[in-house]
Design goal:
With about 375 residues, this protein is α+β, with helices and mostly antiparallel strands. It is about 40% helix and about 25% strand. It has 3 domains: about 35-60 and about 100-165 and about 345-365, Nucleotidyltransferase, domain 5 (2-Layer Sandwich); about 170-210 and about 285-340, Nucleotidyltransferase, domain 5, CATH 3.30.420.40; about 210-280, ATPase, substrate binding domain, subdomain 4 (Actin, Chain A, domain 4). It has helices at about 5-15, 20-35, 80-85, 110-120, 140-150, 165-170, 210-225, 230-240, 275-295, 300-310, 325-330, 345-350; strands spanning about 40, 45-50, 55-60, 65-70, 75-80, 95, 100, 105, 130-135, 155-160, 180-185, 190-195, 200-205, 230, 255-260, 265-270, 310-315, 335, 365. It is found in: Cytoplasm.
Length: about 375
């Protein structure tokens, strides 16, 4: 009877007989154990990192600030939360940049620096495998750019999952069943709409109207109605504090300070909830129209499933007051807000870590 070979003996056997460099072998062997598989929601507004058995371990703004010297060379000043604090408060020599736009990479170099920083901050080990979500309909060039950015940050293998599927998994929808379910993920740069059944995206649509478009609409409203220029941070604060997707009886208001267009001096004005609703009408209507179009193109049998199960809302946009009421009235469907909607995509991408190596159809690998 053969005796089992102990692991240390097997390692020495391989090194001796296969003439493997001992230092390289031991480095790779231990690095494998020290590495972490990560799931990343690389969003336009925020980047979330999910680690297996730990959940979401990082949630920071997708922002980086860089400074240019006299030789036109740029150096990184701050990334994430610290960089966001600088928005609208920097001298001409410092740029505060969102390197992601509409869910895809707008600046490859800065995205790589930002991602590398977030991965190092989230975990001390070098990640061996990474799953990243991408907007539905992203081109092959955009997908490859995202994968290359992750590899530049230290990943050895990169897998992609489409955002509607990730959001559905994170929301706990039964995507493996032979029955339809619907997810609407309103993020920072895009709204992802998905009809799913049997582990497949039956129909999906991605529109570049979401949280950032809400902020821009509030900024334009303040300029048009009050003659005041406000910054992105102020617009976001208005949206989060008194924003509503439906007219309300109990009106709330805020005192806001901006810069007068006519005089160029600071000016204070008051804005209320229903005025914010008026500001948001156009982007809200674009989202409603995209959802209605998706329902019109859904196969009848799946449509009947969705009528009984309802529509599930995820993403930061789900937190806009009365968003569920607006969409329910516009579509005639029950609308359910997912638990912790901000983390749905990251959570669903994290669940996909277990599918690496299984040839599961919801994951695609970029060589």
């Amino acid at each position: 009877m053969l005796k089992p070979v102990k692991t240390p003996c097997l390692i020495m056997f391989l090194i001796y007989n296969l003439k493997i460099d001992k230092r390289l072998f031991m480095f790779g062997f231990f690095n494998r154990f020290l590495s972490h598989d990560l799931a990343i929601d690389l969003g336009t507004a925020n980047t979330l990192i999910y680690a297996k058995d730990k959940g979401v371990i990082l949630n920071e703004p997708s922002i980086i600030s860089v400074q240019e010297n006299e030789h036109h060379q740029e150096s990184t000043i701050a990334i994430g939360t610290e960089a966001k604090k600088m928005l609208g408060r920097t001298p001409a020599s410092i740029r505060v940049v969102r390197p992601m736009k509409d869910g895809v990479i707008a600046d490859f170099e800065l995205t790589g620096k930002m991602l590398k920083h977030f991965i190092r901050k989230a975990t001390e080990g070098r990640p061996s495998r990474v799953v990243i979500c991408v907007p539905y309909g992203a081109t092959q060039v955009e997908r490859k750019t995202i994968a290359e950015s992750a590899k530049a940050a230290g990943a050895s293998d990169v897998f992609l999952i489409e955002e509607p599927m990730a959001a559905a998994l994170g929301a706990g929808l039964p995507v493996n069943e032979a029955a339809g379910c619907m997810i609407v993920d309103i993020g920072g740069g895009t709204t992802e709409i998905g009809i799913l059944a049997m582990n497949e995206v039956v129909y999906a649509n991605s529109i570049r109207t979401a949280g950032n478009a809400f902020d821009e609409a509030i900024t334009l409203y303040a300029r048009r109605e009050f003659g005041v220029i406000i910054g992105d941070v102020t617009a976001e604060n208005i949206k989060q504090t008194i924003g509503t997707a439906y007219p309300v009886e109990n009106v709330e208001s805020m005192i806001i300070t901006g810069r007068s267009i006519s005089r160029g001096t600071p000016r204070t004005f008051s804005i209320n909830s229903n005025e914010v609703f008026e500001a948001l009408k156009d982007p809200l209507n674009r989202i409603i129209q995209a959802i209605i179009t998706s329902l019109e193109l859904t196969p009848p049998e799946l449509a009947s499933d969705i009528i009984s199960r309802g529509l599930v809302l995820a993403g930061g946009g789900a937190l806009l007051s009365n968003m569920d009421r607006l969409l329910s009235e516009a579509t005639g469907l029950p609308v359910i807000i997912a638990e912790n909607p901000l983390c749905c995509v990251a959570r669903g991408t994290g669940y996909a870590l277990d599918l690496i190596g299984t040839q599961h159809p919801i994951l695609s690998q970029i060589p």
